[in-house]
Amino acid sequence: MAVSGQCRLRAAAEPGVHPDRRALLLGLVAVFFWSTVATAFKVALRYLDVFQLLFFASLFSAAVLLSAVALRCQLHRLTDELRGYPGYYLGMAALNPCLYYVVLLSAYDLLPAQQAQAINYTWAITLSLLAIPLLGQPLKSRDAVAAVGGYFGVLVIATRGDLLGLEFDSLPGVGLALFSTLLWAFYWIFSARNPRDGTVALCLNFLLAIPMTGLLCLLFSELRWPGWPGFGAAVYVGLFEMGLTFLLWSTALRTATRVALVGNLIFLAPFLSLVFIQLILHEAIHPATLVGLCLIIPAALFQQMQRPATQ
Predict the structure, then answer these.
(1) Residue 73 dihedral angles phi and psi, to the nearest 5°
(2) Among 61, 157, 192, 238, which residue is least crowded by beta carbons within 10 Å?
């Protein structure tokens, strides 16, 4: 059978499941995988340094995304997009995965997993704040309230509740974790201005990032076989942080009749993540981490709430 015929058959084959039920299932699976990532980062960093982990994980993520593009019969779009917008895709690849994951993994290298992952979830607040100058959106009272609540939660977590002493496990680590949210917010704002297919764009990002991350490895580390434990950890990060989980999440968002039905599931991840951190990494979960998350997550949700139509 011709490839085009196979594509038509796949496109026509729709499971007899309500779209919202399918979207919720896909979204929950994605959230489950993302909730394991903080633990996976810390395990992987036992065997690989930041640059090695990023290089190998990018390879596996690119392979997954390339397979997805091939299954959708869109390989030709990769070359079309790259020829049409080479500067855009090179810049986006440098931003994510290269710079973003160098900063994020460095934060995980310096901080307890529970702190790094909790601080990272302020990206939703950062995104809304950046949209004010970059997208011309007005500053609303809910933005200010969410920022105060969210970043106060960061302070509680980073100081383990010692707000007066202001003693941090790693102040550079906290700074890097917060900087990673800024990079992630920039990435999604620039992505929002790109009307093209998200999977194709992300696949190009990771394909272009392979030589970039390889060069970073040569300059700041070394390219070597990481051993089976390191290899397995890099495969896991590449699949379940960067590649496969993105496909699950983006499919869930496209499938749902209402984006909010799936979108808010992401805020389950930091709490579930603490379970894996305690069970696998044996980090004792500090009460301040829970208090901080109980400030950050409601603040992010509050900021995303739609105003009543009468306002």
Answers:
(1) 55, 45
(2) 192
6-14 long-range contacts, Cβ below 8 Å, gap at least 24? 6/73, 7/72, 7/73, 10/71
pTM for the model stands at 0.86
* The pLDDT of residue 19 is above 50: yes
Q: What integer pLDDT is reported at residue 16 of this predicted model?
A: 60
Judge whether 297 and 121 are in contact, CB under 8 Å. Answer: yes
| CA distances, 45 to each of 72, 236, 262, 270 (Å) | 34, 12, 31, 20
Read off the tokens for 84: 């049409």
97: preceding bond cis by omega (within 30 degrees): yes
Instruction: Give me the residue label for tokens 């950050």.
Output: 296
Please state, in angstroms and rounded to a whole number, the distance separating the CA atoms of residues 241 and 160: 27
What are the structure tokens assigned to 66, written together?
Answer: 């390339």
The domain ranges of the chain are 18-304
Q: Per residue in 297-308, pLDDT tens?
A: 888 877 766 544
User: Helix (H) and strand (E) counts for the chain?
Assistant: 17, 0
First to last CA, the chain: 57
